[in-house]
Amino acid sequence: MTEDHWQSTFSTIQDWAHELGFAAIGVSDIHLNEHPKYLERWLEKGYHGDMAFMAAHGEKRWRPELLEPGTLRVISLRMDYLPQDDQPLAVLNQADKAYIARYTLGRDYHKLIRKRLAQLAKRIETLCGGHHRAFVDSAPVLERALAEQAGLGWIAKNTMLINQTAGSWFFLGEIYTDLPLPTSPPKQEKHCGTCTACLDICPTQAFTGPFELDARKCISYLTIEHKGSIDEALRPLMGNRIFGCDDCQLCCPWNKFAQPTEEPDFQPRHGLASADLVDLFLWDEATYLARTEGSALRRIGYHRWLRNLAIALGNAPSTISVIEALRSRLTFPSELVQEHVIWALQQHEPTH
Q1: Which of 102, 112, 192, 321 has a C-alpha 20 to 30 A away from that of 252?
Q2: Distance CA 51, CA 122 (A)
Q3: What is the DSSP letter of 163?
Q4: What whole-number distance in Å separates Cα of residue 279 and Cα of residue 248?
Q5: What stretch of H or E contains 161?
Q6: Phi/psi of residue 297, nearest 5 degrees
Q7: CA distance 348 to 340
Q8: Which of 29, 86, 96, 137 is catalytic?
Q9: Catalytic: 137?
Q10: Which residues of the chain have pLDDT under 70?
Q11: Under a CB-based contact definition with an 8 Å cutoff, are residues 173 and 80 in contact?
Q12: Predicted structure pTM score
């Protein structure tokens, strides 16, 4: 096959990707340059915390041809998720409201993007054969590194991928393929300049410096990945953030270019974009399961949901409804929940 043939093939794939709701697509080879060394240093410092999966799988994480034999190229794709008419800062500034990371207000992105990637891979296979495997944040894949090399953006000081015309409110997905598609120009220049807004605003000061995050202090890690008790010193700093944190995106100047998604499945459901902390805390488990069905919120389970809400209520204004809600959970059959409820009630004692 000629170079022109593969360029034409990629143009067709690009058109299909847009039809399926992807905002951008790029292709990289399988050599990740300096990124594996960065990952190794990060792991050596223990910044991954309880996320043992980050240290698992060995070289498969940065050598696509080991994870999926025969891989020659990685197709990286972007899908935007910022909800329309969203007011995240307004919610953050109301201490009695629950702040939930914007990416999880709608349906679970894993399922939606995986389905679209599978459809795209099937079309590619029908067009020109080959072997293809799709990934959505579900395998040992250095997706931001691959996306940077595919020209979709640059890995910024907040360790997220930023695109000059779209900001950072997007998901990434990949298709490993054995087709010799033409590679896209990599994004080699980082356009953060002297800006340190993301480093300065982090509530828990989780950034050890530009381009390096200690996940053990990150609110997203604490509320989602961490399964045990949350460090008491960090609890007051978490504010009303009960699932994830968007602060380092909300302050980023590049996100003035972000456009709201037109994907219906990413729009907020069940009033979770600005729900009251007390209301959520009083959900029984059946209600929690019903209201989070098909959502990424399900992954933390009911007990950690209550743990996170208890901390937020401890940081909320002292009202009768807040204190009564907390007291109603004092005998909840979970030591993890009880511990955080007791702490929260202590924050509302006159001595505090």
Answers
A1: 112
A2: 33
A3: B
A4: 27
A5: strand 161-162
A6: -65, -25
A7: 13
A8: 137
A9: yes
A10: 351-352
A11: no
A12: 0.95
